[in-house]
Amino acid sequence: MSSSNDTSVVASSTIIVTLNLINERFTGTLPLIFVILGTIGFLGNTFTFLQRKLRSNTFCIYSLCGSVVDVINLYTNLLMTYIVKDSIVFLPQLSMNLLVTSLIDRFSCTCSLTSPIRRIRRLKMVPYLVVLTILISGVMSLYSPMFYDYVPNSGCVVTDTLSNGTLYTILHGFMAPIIMCVFVWLTYRNIRHSRQRVTVANTSATISRSRHQFISTVVTQTNCAILHLRSLVTHSTSHVINHRVFIVIYILSVFTSDASTMVLKLRELLIKQVAIYLPYFSYDSCQCLTADQRERVLRWLVSHDYLSPTIAPYITKNLLSIPLYSLEFYKCDQLTNDMLIEIGRASHFSRLKSLIIHQCSQVQDSGVRAITKGQLSLEYLALRKLTNLTNVGLDGIHSAFLKEIDFRWNEKIQDHGIFTIVSNNLNLRSIRLVNCHGLTGQSVNHIAQNLAEKLEVLDVEGLKTLDAEVFVHLVDYCPNIRSLNLFGIINLDADGLFTLFVRSTRMMQLNLSYTTCFLQEPVADYLCCLPLSLVDICLSGTQVYSTNILVRALTRLKNIEHLRLNGLATISDDAIEKILAVIGGRLKTLEMNGYITVGSLTDRSVEHIVRYCTSLEHLSLNLLSFTSTLDSLYDLFSSTERALKLHTISLSSFRNINERVLWSLVENCLNVTLLELSGIPCVNDSLISSLKHCRKLSHLNIKGCKQITDLSICDLLGVCRFVSLVLSGCYQLTDKSILALAHTQPFLEEIYISGCTRISPAAVRFLQDNTIRRLYIDHKIPNALPDALMARNLDTGLFEQV
Questions:
Q1: Average per-residue pLDDT in the chain?
Q2: For 241-281, where are the alpha helices, taking DSSP H only?
Q3: How far apart, in whole angstroms, are the C-alpha atoms of residue 799 and residue 240?
Q4: pLDDT at residue 784 is higher than 60
Q5: Phi, psi of 747 (to 5 degrees)
Q6: Which residues are in the F-box/LRR-repeat protein 15-like leucin rich repeat domain (predicted)?
């Protein structure tokens, strides 16, 4: 252990020496580089603004004056810093104020011809406005003599760092960008009003072109202002706090900004380094970390299996020295009861608002009780797939603020455990008990009696039996329940359901998937009494006695927006037309998957969808029909207004789909976030590469698309931020795609690459090390390449491709 510590210290020292060397040799030459580039830019501006057509334009005059001020600052500040290590700052705000003046000039030219503001565009007004701008800039810098003083051998130094930094940030950092944004908005508003007043033949191209020019110019100037703001804030802040601490805080301040992928990668790289070298950080050096950053460090340790017993004391010492508000332990087999007990004993560990423990095999009742004890501010609690959790582990959960609990797949929890947690937390709003097979209807009765009108969401998917008494309790005690999931409960009492349907007036979401009680004619009629307040209903796999009953039940739902009808044997093309003709205009979500085995739907149903569903945002037609060409979807995707509304599209296993439909999809559905095109033979690199225009795409499924190569995958990685990728069966993919994913997709959470024989396990492990959260990988290679090198993995004992 000591040798590894020495090695880490030596490595850290080497890094510091290297960074210091770079700082001395590279940073010292930066002023000269900026002077050269700035001079080139100044010459370009001079030749541009002094052209005959532009020299009399007031906007160009103000811009040229600002360029002159910039080049003066370059030579008196940066160049002098490079030559004699001393500098003079010449009215640093003047250049930005001249830019503001140019924006005011642009605003005046968009005002009406009778407006008095247009007078400032006269050439004789230019000298007056320039002088006024210089005076304003001088006034804005008057605070300098108050907070600066000359010290021998040190030059001009700050005497009051806090006041100077505050005024510097407000006057020079915030005022100019705010004023710029105001006049940009006023200018754009005037342009829009003028277009509404004037009508000229064939103006669409001109309007579009001028709008793009205006937006491009505005974005450029706004970015300059933001960069100026960032530099001013950091400059002033560096005078207020210690230099070493400032560097850490400035780098970690990127954590909370909405930055590009490169900046996000830098943020997560810093999180990774802090997590790895956590034992070597002192208590004082970790004080600059905020609660959110400490939570990220702990989440990284958990997701990458660094949660060893040796690091647990440093977590308590360095990360839990201030209160944390959110903890997540996701699929961490290293997490033990002793670690949770140690975390629970931390002095500041009593203000958690969110706690998630998901599928941690070693966690038992004692660990859960330790980490939940005394958490009086807890608002969300998720204890999922904990095979050793029983009723005893729920005894210590007491919080007046607890609103939601999620206990999915905890088979050892019984009714008594639910009685305890509900009795101790009477402000619960949402309860999810999916596949808790040890529960009975008595737990639901107790929930209803204790929570009463506070209960809003109840998910009891997988319960064996719900009798009439359960439904009576729900409608009697819980009038505000708005979401109920009864997925897969075979033994549903029909009379109880009827009572629920008739007396529930505020229910908005109902899931009756894979229930069989509607096969008999008298009970099937109960569907026609579904609550009229429903907005979302799911009937996937629900067997209904007749088609007419289903049509009558759905057409009376006047508020329905989300409809899921997957794999219904009683549905037909005519039934789809009758349903959508009434409610199609309101639908935002439509799922009709799995009708290949039923064989009851054809392209006619797709035509009805296109004709009636004009507000769709989510469309799923997976496995609808082997023979469908989906030609009618071309009208949906080619309509710009309707195409831009679509966020998720699933069209898997359409072997005969018209390729024109797919091209229309990728060219016009620019806001799509989820796209499934698995099993479509005509999907190729050109089609997938065109998805780079869909910058919001985060979930992509192209399973079994054999024409896909590394080329198209790499094209998307620089644009899209993926969370889920399904590439199974794309056997032409190689390690190139995986390595590109590792460098560009830190937010990837799951990837399916089974059957991709040219992808090596080493590349997959490298990808896993470079993601932020724990990455789920499905990589099965039943038939590896005959010349592939196989070796035994010493960690698992299995033979793997190298």
A1: 82
A2: 243-252, 261-276
A3: 59
A4: no
A5: -95, 10
A6: 579-766
Q: Are residues 566 and 661 in the same domain?
A: yes
Which residue reads 């009723």 in tokens?
Answer: 391
State pLDDT tens for residues 98-121.
Answer: 888 888 888 887 787 677 887 888
In a domain, 179, yes or no: no
Find the radius of gyration of the CA atoms of the chain. 33
Is the torsion defined by CA of 580, 583, 587, 589 positive or negative? negative
Q: What is d(CA 445, CA 448) in angstroms, rounded to the nearest whole number? A: 5
Residue 407, in any domain of the structure = no
Pair 643, 704 in one domain: no
Mean pLDDT of all residues in 715-742: 93
* Amino acid found at 646: L
- Token couple for 434: 């999916």
Same domain, 700 and 620: no
Confidence at residue 496, expressed as pLDDT on a 0 to 100 scale: 85
CB atoms within 10 A of CB 284: 8
pLDDT at 15: 52
Indicate the pLDDT class of residue 483, thresholds 50, 70 and 90.
Answer: very high
Of 74-78, 370-374, 448-452, 798-802, the one with minimum mean pLDDT is 798-802
Q: Tell me the pLDDT tens digit for each residue of 651-687.
A: 998 989 999 999 999 999 999 999 999 999 999 999 9
Per-residue confidence band for 200, with pLDDT thresholds at 50, 70 and 90: very low
Question: Do 570 and 532 share a domain, yes or no?
Answer: no
What is the C-alpha separation between 175 and 136, in angstroms, rounded? 12
- Name the token pair of 258: 């909405």
The CA distances from residue 727 to 514, 574, 607, 649, 752, in Å, are 30, 37, 30, 17, 6
Tokens (6 digits) for 593: 């998957």
Reply yes or no on whether the pLDDT at 192 is more than 80.
no
CB 764 within 8 A of CB 733: no
* 538, β-bridge pairs: 511, 564
Residue 725: CA count within 13 A, CB half-sphere: 26
For residue 247, what pLDDT is reported? 36
Tokens of 745: 């997709």
Q: 764: exposed, middle or buried (C-beta count within 10 Å: 0-12, 13-18, 19+)?
A: buried
pLDDT at residue 623, rounded to an integer: 87
- 645 confidence band (pLDDT: 50, 70, 90): very high
Using the 3D structure, point to which of 538, 572, 603 is the last residue of a domain.
538
Whether 677 and 652 have beta carbons less than 8 Å apart is answered as: yes
Range of 708's domain? 688-801
Q: What confidence score (pLDDT) does residue 519 get? A: 80
291, part of any domain: no
> Can you give the length of the chain in residues?
802
Asked whether 461 and 487 are in contact (CB, 8 A), the reply is: yes
Rounded to whole angstroms, the Cα distance separating 488 from 486 reads 6
**Dihedrals φ, ψ of 13, to 5°?**
-65, -40
Alpha helices (H) in 288-436, listed in sequence order = 291-303, 312-314, 337-344, 365-372, 415-424
Q: Nearest to residue 388, comparing CAs of 407, 408, 362, 370?
A: 362
End-to-end CA separation in angstroms for the chain: 30
d(CA 334, CA 315): 14
Is pLDDT above 90 for 64? Answer: no
CATH number at residue 708: 3.80.10.10
Structural domains in the chain (count): 4
270, 294 Cβ separation under 8 angstroms: no
Which of 672, 698, 723 is the C-terminal boundary of a domain? Answer: 672
Label residue 751 exposed, middle or buried (CB < 10 Å: 0-12, 13-18, 19+). Answer: buried
For 18-32, 340-354, 428-442, which range has the lowest pLDDT when averaged over its residues? 18-32
Residues 667 and 694 in one domain: no
Instruction: Report yes or no on 567 lying in a domain.
Output: yes
Q: Are residues 531 and 584 in the same domain?
A: no
Exposed / middle / buried, residue 300 (Cβ in 10 Å: 0-12, 13-18, 19+)? buried
Same domain, 33 and 123: yes
